[in-house]
Amino acid sequence: MTQKEFEMNDKLASIGKKFLIPGDIYAFSVIKRGNINATYRVSYTSDEGAIDTYIFQRINTYVFKNPVEIMENIEQVTSFIEKKNAAKVSLKFRHTKDGKNYCYDDDSSFWRVMNYIDSVTFDISDDPNVIVSTGEAFGQFVMLLSDFDGSKLHETIPNFHNTGKRLDTLFSHESIAPYEVLDVCEKELRYIHEVANKARKLSDKFLAGKFPVRVTHNDTKCNNVLFDKDTKRPLVVIDLDTVMPGMAMYDFGDAVRFIANTCHEDEPDVRKVSFDTSKFRAFCKGYLGQVKNILTKDEIDSLVLATFSITIELAARFLDDYILGDVYFKVDYPGHNLVRTRCQLALAKDIMRKYDELQKIIEETVS
Question: Which one of 15, 92, 293, 359 is least enclosed by Cβ atoms within 10 Å?
Answer without folding.
Answer: 293
